[in-house]
Fold this sequence. Notes:
This protein is α/β, with parallel strands linked by helices. The protein has two domains: 1-76 and 152-251, P-loop containing nucleotide triphosphate hydrolases (Rossmann fold, 3-Layer(aba) Sandwich); 85-149, no CATH class. It contains eight helices and ten strands. The protein has helices spanning 44-51, 91-95, 97-101, 107-119, 135-149, 165-182, 193-199, 233-247; strands at 6-15, 18-28, 33-37, 59-64, 67-68, 77-79, 153-157, 185-189, 202-206, 213-218. The strands form two sheets. A six-stranded mixed sheet has the order 6-7-8-3-9-10, sandwiched between helices. β9 (202-206) and β10 form a beta hairpin. The chain starts with 5 loop residues before the first strand and ends with a helix.
Amino acid sequence: MSSPKIVLEDVSQRFGSTQALAATSLSVAAGEFVCVVGPSGCGKTTLFNVLSGLLKPSSGRVLIDGADVTGKPGQVGYMLQKDLLVPSLSALENITLGARLQGRVTRAQRHAAAEMARRYGLGDFLDHFPHAMSGGMRQRVALMRTMAFAKDVMLLDEPFGALDSQTRLTMQSWLLSVWQETRSTVLFITHDIDEAVFLADRVVVMSPRPGRISEILDVDLPRPRGIDVLTETSFTDTKRHILDLIYARTD
């Protein structure tokens, strides 16, 4: 059995007198899609900041491919809810922003970024600027930028939270098609339980602060997934169980 791609070992985080994240351990397999849900303020984003190396935990460590990367940024791609595109740069220039910040963009990097964009439906928009793009298109560019920086592991923090429901479902389906081809390891924060069940292999449910993992649920739905799974009994049963955990329902 292969070693896990990501391992969190008893990671905790304090901010002064506030315990934001209790000791948390988690293993994620290579190519797995894991969604993280829980009430606001339960430490989901804190967990991602630790995973990304932006925040050094108060205790514990983070391993990627067996190497200790605790407090070391630049090991994963990290996408936030806001697309954070640079207004003065075209779609292609935004996708290659990581290389630009590291010095310069090579011809090979531009070519690879353009090919990736064309492959995933952005080919006609490479020269467009953010102000001329829809919300969904801007999020696609932001995701391509994340992939160009680090295709191997991606942390996505509420990337579709600002989109309307129809655009959001379209983006979820698009993301699954991209992931199906790249098989990146994805951790995805969401407040939308339907989104979590639709996307994930497993759903990590966190408790209120100090955040800790209440339960990890396997999602028993076939892949590839279409919107028809949203009405399947397995989908609604999993959703109900997650809601019971988050809202501590016993009736």
